[in-house]
Amino acid sequence: MSTTVLCVDDDPAVLSVLARILRRDGLEVRTTESPVDALKWIESEDIGVLVSDYEMPQMTGAQLAGRAKRIRPDVVRVLLTGQRDLETAVDGINQGEVFRFVSKPFDHTQLSEVVAAAIERHHELAELAGYKASRERSRELKVAVEQEYPGITEVKRGSGARYEVPDPKELASALALDALVNQLDK
After folding, report:
1. Predicted model pTM
2. What are the helix and strand counts (H, E) for the chain?
């Protein structure tokens, strides 16, 4: 399963280095100098990881990460920063729930490891989202069945640890499921 990494930096030389390092790792990489374009891609394409510079003219990397999170929560956000202060970290965490920070100038090996961990986290989040969607669909189906056949999803507890299971034929008769009653008679 290929995961696209989107790199955003207002410095084209940094973008070129990022793309070269990540493509060498066999990753699919998109690059842009525009946070606005990045948000459009996040909205319209299957982007798994966002690697963004913190200091950019249009918006900070923390602001970009926050907007990306609202558009697509399973995009894992990584910030590159030359600033090593608490304010930058707090801003990134509060606005964009950033997965990791990478200091500039960055070590190529460290960058590769951080992006690999971000891709793994993206897969975990995507799997979790699929599980939640499946659970919600199951809940919706149960509600629909219960509306169509009231009482069918109800389980009555007997004494002790035993459950009272109604006779299938009696339940089918009570629900006016004549075809099922006929099958149970056979």
Report:
1. 0.69
2. 7, 7
